[in-house]
Amino acid sequence: MHNGSQHTAPPSHGEATLVVDGGARITACSPAAGALLGRTPAELYGRPVQDLLLPPGTPWPPPADDTARTGADAILRHRDGFSVPVRLRIRPLHGPDGTLALVHLAPTAAARHREQEQALLAALFGQTRIGLLVLDTELRLVRANLPPQPDPAGPGAGLDSVLLPADAAGIRARTAAVVATGEPFNDWVRPVRLRRDPADERILSLSAMPMRDPAGRIVGALLSFADVTAQHAAQRRIDVIDEAARGIGRSLDVTRCAEELVAALVPAVADLASVDLTEVVLRGEEPGEFLIDAPLRRAAVASADGTWPEEVHPPGATIRVRARESDYLRSGLVRIVDMDELRVTVSGQTDRERLLLPGRASSFLVLPLQARGLVLGALGLWRTADRPAFDADDATLVGEIGSRASLSIDNARRYTREHHLVQNLQESLLPRPLLDVGAAQTAGTYVPAGTSAQISGVWFDAIPLSSARVAFVVGDARGNGLDATATMGRLRTAVRTLADLDLPPEELLTHLDDLALHLRADGLPQPGAAPAGGPTCLYAVYDPSDGTCTVASAGHRPPVVATPAGPAAPLALRPGPPLGAGSAPFEPVSVDVPPGTLLALFTDGLLERAGADEEKAVRMLGDALRDAAQPSAPVAGLGREVLTRILTHPPGSDLALLLARVRNLPEGSVLSREFPVDPAAVADARSTAAAQLTTWGLDDLVFTTELIVSELVTNAIRYAGGPIVLRLIRDERLICEVSDPSQTQPRLRRARPTDEGGRGLFLIAQLTSRWGSRYTPGGKVIWTEQEITPAEDPPPA
C-alpha cells in the first residue's frame, strides 16, 4: 500500500538511467536505478514507468518543453513504500523498435546542488572582477574568464600567454608548488604586466588551490586574482601620510622641519625634492606680504640616489623669484608642470634653470608652503623617466603632507623667535663677561641651551666692593623659559643692591631668601615650585689686602679652587637650603687664598653636560682648571678652554661658568694705624695720611685726604669712642677707611646756615667719587674713594 505522504526515502546522491520504449515500458536500466528504487534490474525490465510514479495516475511523459530545458520534478515509489523525489531529464532516441527515450534520474537534492554548482561556475567565469585560470598539472591553461587577448590564449597555453614572461615566471613557480604539494596560497600581492597592455603595471592579489578528481588526485590548479591597484595606491597614500605624520614636526628647528619634509617624500613620492624658505622664516621673524624678488634660501634637499644634481641650486643657496613665481607662491595651489613646456619657457634663463630643471627630471610638482595665508616658502618635487608622471592623486597627497609640514615649519619659526627672545633677554641681563680690578681678573661664560624650554635662568656676576674687595656670584633661578629669565633678573638685581650695602655673604643670602619668599607670596613667577627646588645662589667676597675669601651658599655647589702649587678641589663648604625655603641659616666659610689662585663658580648644567657622575665631573673640572691655571694664561680664554675639555654631550640645559684669578695688593699698598680717643689724635691722623700719600706720589690728593681724615676721625672720637683705626689703601683708587666700635650708621644731611655742625659728610660727598659704610663684627667702617689719575702714578723705585 502506498504511503508516500507519510514516508520519504532517505536522501540518495546516486543518479540512474532508464531506457523507455514507445509504450512507456522500461527496456533497460543502470544498476543505480535499482539501488535508487530498491529493486533489481530484472524487476524493472518490461515494467511500465507509470507504475513507479506517485501519486498513481501521474501522466507520462512530463511536458516536453520543461524536460528539455531544466528537467521535471517527479516522485517515484520505492519498493519499501517510501517516496523518492527525483529530477527527470528525458531525451528521445531512435532505436530499431521505434521511438525510445533515455531517462536520467537524479535525486532532487543532488540535482539542485549540481544546478547551483553549475550556476556558480557560470557566474564566476562570466565575471571579470576576479580573474580565474584553470590550469592542468603542466600549468597549461584549460579555462579562463579573461577577455580576449591580443595574442590568443586558448586551451593548452601557459601563463606566458596572459602575462609578460618576466612576471609569469614567479607566479608559475609558486603555482607549481601548489600542484606538487597540494598546499594553497592566498592573497599573494605582487605587481604584474598583462600582455594586452604591457605599459600598464597592475597590482594583483593572487590565490591558488589544488583541483582534485573524485579519487583525490591533483589534476590541476585554480589560480584566481583580483586587481588591487587602486586599493594598493590608496593604502600607499595612507602609509605615506602616516609616515610623514610621524616624521614631520618632531623638531622645533625650522631647517630640521624642512629636512623632515623632503625625507618623508623621497623616495616614497618623488626622486628629487627641495624646500626653499624665506629668509624671515629662517630667522624666526613674522612673515609679511611676499614680494617680487624676495630672497629664499634652499633649506633642504633629498635625492633618491643620494646625489644632488650639480645643475640645480645646492642646499644653502639664496634664490630670488620673479613675478610669475611670486604670484604662484601667493596662490597656495599645488601645480603639476609640464617639463617640456617648462624647458621652453625658461630656456636661456640661467637662474630659473638652476631653480627648476634637474637634467634627468621628467615630471615636476610644486607646492607653495603657507601658514595663516602667509608665504613660508615652496616645496619642489621631481620624478625621473623611470617613474610615471605626477597625477591628480599625487597632487592631493603632496598637498595634504605639505599643509601639515607648513604648520610644523611655522610652529618651529615661532619657537625660534621665542628662543631668540629668551636667549637675548637672558644674555642682556648678564654682566659684561670680563672684569679686571686690583683684586682679581674674571671671565664669565654663558652657554645657552638648545631650546628655550631648557633655558633655566642661570647667571654669574663679579661686583667690585669697597676697600678694593670684589664679590663673585653665580646662581640658578631654576624653572624654564621667560619666567626663569625674569626671576633671574630680579635675583641678580637684588644681589647687586644688597652688595652695595657691604653685607657679609651669609647676611646677604638671608635677605635674598626673604625676597624669594615675598616673590612666592605675591604670586609672581617663582621657580621655588619647580621640580628641582628653589633658586640657588653662591656669594663669595675676596679681600686682596689679607688674601681671604669668605663664601656662603644657598643650595648651590661650592666652587672649585685651583691653587698655583696644589691640586684643584671643591671648597669645603656646606651649602644651605635653596632660596625661598626660609629654614636653616647660611653658614659662611673663610679661607686663605694664595695670589694667582683660580676660582671656578659654575651651575649644574656644566656637570650635566659632562656626561658623567657628579664626582667624576667635578674631578674633570678640577683637572681642566689645574692644566689651564698657568699664571701667564689670560683668564679670558680659560673659560672656553675648560668647557671644550669637559662638554662631551649635547646641551641639556644652559650653564654659567665664572673664572676668577685672585691677586693680592702690592706690598706697601696698605697703611693701617690705630689712634686713641683723644682730640689730639686728629692732627696725628692728618699728618700720618699726608706722609703716606707723599710716599705714594699722590701729593695732589694730600689736601682733600687731610680734610676727609680729619672729619672721619673727629666724628669717631665724638660719637663712637675707641679704638679708632685709620687705613689707607692704594689701588686703582685711593681708599680711606676709619673704623670704630659703634654700629650707628652716619647720615648725610644738609645743614642750615645757622647750624654749627652737620656739614662733615656733605663735604666728604663733595670731595670723593664714592663713599659709604659697612658693619663689621666689632663695629663699623666708613670708607671713601678718590680717583687717581695716570699722572699721579708713583715714580719707579
Write the topology of this structure.
Blueprint: E1 16-20, E2 26-29, H1 31-37, H2 41-44, E3 53-54, H3 64-69, E4 72-77, E5 83-95, E6 98-107, H4 108-126, E7 130-136, E8 141-144, H5 165-181, E9 185-193, E10 201-212, E11 218-227, H6 229-247, H7 254-265, E12 272-278, H8 279-282, E13 295-303, E14 318-320, H9 323-331, E15 335-337, H10 339-345, H11 350-356, E16 361-371, E17 374-384, H12 392-429, E18 434-436, E19 440-447, E20 458-464, E21 470-476, H13 481-500, H14 505-521, E22 536-543, E23 548-554, E24 560-562, E25 568-570, E26 589-592, E27 598-602, H15 604-610, H16 614-628, H17 635-646, E28 655-662, E29 670-675, H18 681-696, H19 702-719, E30 724-730, E31 733-740, H20 760-767, E32 770-776, E33 779-787
Antiparallel strand pairs: 1-2, 1-6, 3-4, 4-5, 5-6, 7-8, 7-11, 9-10, 10-11, 12-13, 12-17, 13-14, 15-16, 16-17, 18-19, 19-28, 20-21, 21-22, 22-23, 23-26, 24-25, 24-27, 27-28, 29-30, 30-31, 31-33, 32-33
Helix pairs in contact: 6-7, 6-12, 7-12, 12-13, 13-14, 15-16, 16-17, 18-19, 19-20
